[in-house]
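Practice set, problem 2.
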Amino acid sequence: MSAWMDNVFALRRLWRARDGVAALEAAFLLPTFMLFLLGICEFGRVLWMQSGLQYAVEAAARCSVVYSASTCNGTTATKTYAASQIFGPSIPTSTFSVSGSCTGTMTVTASYAFTFIVPQLFPWNLTLTAKSAYPC
């Protein structure tokens, strides 16, 4: 056989070779899969924090009207009560603000600067807000 035919057969063998294909596919797909999985976890954390903030402001607004004589008898006590209603991470009382009086409605709002676990992958600034008003 000629050298040309040897090269053709070598190219055919190379074209049909399947050694290392799984490693190559993993090298391409694993970073994408991990980024997708991390994005799902971060999105879940955002929803969890938003739900927790909303629950806390609703509970604090209700507390400031229903238990105004004992548990939530002032702005500071209402903020402390709201911060205690968050399940999971501790949030400072400065996140919450209370306005209104018991002649109309009591309004409790929250504004929280959410930080991502890996800010290099998710470089956005995200502020979560929640608001609740409870009639007196």
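Problem 2, part (b): a different protein.
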Amino acid sequence: MRDRPIIFGGLMVFLGLATFPIWYNVAAGKTSRGPDIKLPAQEKECVAATDYMRSSHMDLLVEWREQVVRQHVRRFTAFNGRNYNISLTGTCLKQCHTSKADFCDRCHDYAGAGTPYCWDCHNEPRPAATVAHRLPQ
């Protein structure tokens, strides 16, 4: 019976420490919004719904890889009936998400997902302004 104030005090300290990040962000005026990414100006729709791409884009890319490598299927019909060439660098990175730093890295850093292993095989996209092809003299 005499331990009741100590137990309640301990619970209050625990709850205060456990919820500190929430209260700190509220006091600082921060929100839990995701990263501010640059969306492509020329395309209005992705190959799949936005919610699906946020949560399961890797499933789609793995499915594409399996279709191209094992089944030799190179066309994908999107949910809206539009046909796309199945290609990470030719479709996703060339047409829409041209900057790895502005798109891929921001989301992966925010989510703590680590470095995507796409770049083990694929070339990292470079903005057109930074790529300079020089002819040998």
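Answer key, part (b): The chain has a mean pLDDT of 81. Helices lie at 4-18, 20-28, 50-71, 88-96, 104-111.
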